[in-house]
Amino acid sequence: MHTKAVYRAARGFEAAGLPVLRFNFRGVGRSAGRYTGGPGERDDARAALALVRERRAGGPLFVGGFSFGSWIALQIARADARVAALVAIAPPVAIYDFGFLHGETRPILLVAGDRDPFCPAEALDVLAARLGPRTERLVLHGAEHLLTTHLDALQDAVRGFAARILDRL
Which residue among 29, 78, 84, 159 is least enclosed by CB atoms within 10 Å? Predict the structure, then answer.
């Protein structure tokens, strides 16, 4: 929740006019519970999305995440028709299978650094190609997994993506 990339992506969504909810998965920071490797974290993300749906009745929803959080967030977003677009920041495609996204019809933004060992640019290219033309891909040259040297570019990319999608709705 307090990772600089997560914070700056949230600022990008806000700059596009969207409300933002950031949260920690179970066992992270002061959150109760223990890490489960996916099942419990999907429950956490579903609960967060339910809260946002409740508080934002009728408005478009965007779901995104950073690293492991992108793998979780995009899985739960697949089951919610109100989600208008998906954002994956530094998705760890070298560790987790993102094949569940194949067939996804909503717009997707993929952002990663070209020095990210968990999201090699070549693997991100393969995923983007499989997802097709509704996918926007941004590889930040010289950026590592945490994207700390490219936070302005990350924020601008998220803001621009969200604004373009909102203009179409």
Answer: 29
